[in-house]
Write a structure and sequence with these properties.
Radius of gyration: 24 Å
Strand content: 5-15%
Helix content: 40-55%
Number of strands: 8
Strand order of the largest sheet: 1-2-8-7-6-3-4-5
Order of helices and strands: HHEEEHHHHEHEHEHEHEHH
Number of helices: 12
Distance between the termini: 52 Å
Length: 363
Amino acid sequence: HQFTSSSWVETGGVESTMILKSFLVVAISIAFPSTILGFFCGHVVHNNLLNGPSSCGRRAAHCSERKLVGSGSARALFPVVSDESYSSILPSSPKGVIFDMDGTLVQHVFDFADMRRRVYAVADKDSIGQDLERGCVLALADMLSCEGQEECKMIFDECERHALDNMQTMPGGVELVRFLRDNGLKRAVLTRNLEKNVPFMSDLYLEEMGSNSCEGGSAAAEPLFQPIVARDSLSHPSDEEPLKSKPHPDGILHICSLWGCDPSEVIMVGDNANDDITAANRAGCGGAVLLTQPGGDSLDTHSGYEVGDSEAEIRERTPSLRVESLLELRTCLEALLNQPDNSSTASQTKANSKDTTQRDSLL
């Protein structure tokens, strides 16, 4: 993880003091093992070595990571966070959650490295593409000759057809979406895929949720995800150009506008720091959650555009919370909503959601 020189200066004194105190405690426990002071220091050493520190002052967002207390292996960019402190890294009363689709709601099947290679190969032999930089494959394809664009479209269609044929829900996704729906939180999808492909994912979720997907029949008129914003989505039917895709914040701002809330009240969840987390931070989302592989690793989901390494650009790619599964995120959100200040708010939000659904079904 990246550290600026100022962060070292800011935290260096604290770390040095902690090291000195630890050394003194160990020394006393060894030198005077039979005394009360020695017994107390030995107990402190045992607890810290085996169990780790129980508390620590929060630092800036570029601080090193430690395991998040009470959430399995979920990790945030704070040293230690208790269940009562999720509101420090997520909206205290979230209005909704915006999901990336591929690699987040459904399992990762795209071979991005192969797609980049094939599109760049088309550009290499294209009369226009030969002189273009090898950046984002979607942007690059749009700048090629008509023949080159058609060939790239065939590549994209083949990749997306393969993804549809092998689509599977992400483990824990059904439980998380059901939890959000049952607690009255809105759900939306923001994807660089095509809009026509998203209903396949929604239908898969509805199928796995089965008869529990609706409560008393009143929720039948409520889509599982609304709205859906893809790379070909228009903000208005009269628009000629679609909304800018991630990492631009346009899609998130559009969703918040339709929801009638501020970006600070929503959480963005995705598996790509360059796309999802950057878009979330640029839009000012209250939470930017990065879904990683077990162990914290990330897959290659990069479409090819240049990623900067300035301090500001690194900060844009920094999530407020990392989780290794959607079940862990559900645990985090459950702890957040169960905080005393939020329990009554969550109940009211759920009631308002049911009233809105019933009104819409009557209309």
